[in-house]
Amino acid sequence: MTQVQFLQVDETHKIAYETIGSRQGIPLVFLHGGPGSGYSEASKSFFDTNLWFATFIDQRGCGKSTPNGCVVNNTTDDLILDIEKIRKKIGVDRWVVFGGSWGSTLALKYTMTFPEKVHALILRGVFLGTKEEIDWFVNDMGKQKFPNTFADLQQIVPKDMNILEYYYNTIFGNDRIKSVDATERWENLERAGMQLSEENLKFKGAVPQQIEKKEETISEVKALNRMRIHLHYLKNNCFLRHNELIDNCNILGERKVFIVQGSDDPICPKKHALKLHSHLKNSEIELVKNTGHDAFSPKLKNALTNALEKVRKELL
Asked: Exactly one of 32, 272, 293, 294 is catalytic; which is it?
């Protein structure tokens, strides 16, 4: 069993991280998605511990990192510096960077900031952190692909406010009933995107009478904290300049980038992965047919396992 460790990165934030595998294995860092999600036990299943020395990091305010849900001193640049501090802490010289969705954003930004510390990248469900992609996820994805879920999301939004603004203000507000209700509606949109379907979703958000009667649960607090981080980043355009990652692709030089992309991913459409691929000097892309955003779907997981093996052979 491995043990979660903590690194105090500033006066506020203590970052949780964990390593698995042998020190003789190839160093790798796993960057989770969200923003806000934290890494899961299931994430470890990608890596053969006989071959890889993998590090998992809960980003600021996420997972086991403290304070949970805190958005003070919490920007993309802060997260990048945290990754580098943990690399130094565990004594790794260079590593492979593995990230999906928001994790792919951080993987690119980290490599562009510290290119000499990265052997290669493995990206899944590419998200470039642009306003276009955020608008697609918040507005157009639901309208076009999950109309019932979108109607439920939009139902509580006043006509003079946009969806992101309303949900941000509500989640950061003091009305618990409204916050829990908004969280459930937003999470339904995420679930629809993950499962490529509106089946088995509960509409109309939470039931106020039920919320009033019960004490705040641990799962409720976790969900609200995750939403705080999530919306904090989306509202601030992920703290990236317009088109920043594409504009800086030249920094990666000849560094190998493996891109695994679900052909039917509604959350991170394939056109962004293809755009990234076209701007890189040394990348391979695999469009996995009939798959979406879920990294643990059999086809995507198999493609990621194959990408890991390709990287391993190149580094031998």
From this structure: 293
Quick one: tokens of 226?
Answer: 């995750």
Q: What are the structure tokens assigned to 219, written together?
A: 């799962």
Ordered mean pLDDT values, 10 residues apiece, the chain (316 residues): 91 98 97 96 96 98 98 99 99 98 99 99 99 98 95 95 97 94 95 84 52 60 96 99 98 97 98 99 97 96 98 92
Which residue in the list 265, 272, 277, 297 is annotated as catalytic?
265
The answer to whether the peptide bond before residue 27 is cis (omega within 30 degrees of 0) is: no
Domain boundaries, the chain: 5-129+241-315, 131-239
Q: What is the pLDDT of residue 316?
A: 79
Active site residue 45: no
Question: What is the Cα–Cα distance from 104 to 94, expressed in whole angstroms?
Answer: 18
101 tagged catalytic: yes
Beta-bridge mates of residue 6:
16
Fold held by 5-129+241-315: Rossmann fold (3.40.50)
Rounded to an integer, what distance in angstroms lies between the CA atom of residue 232 and that of residue 75? 9
CA distance 61 to 70: 5
Q: Which of 37, 43, 101, 297 is catalytic?
A: 101
Contact residues for 222 (Cβ-Cβ < 8 A; gap 6+): 68
CA torsion, ordered 109, 281, 116, 8, to nearest 10 deg: 20
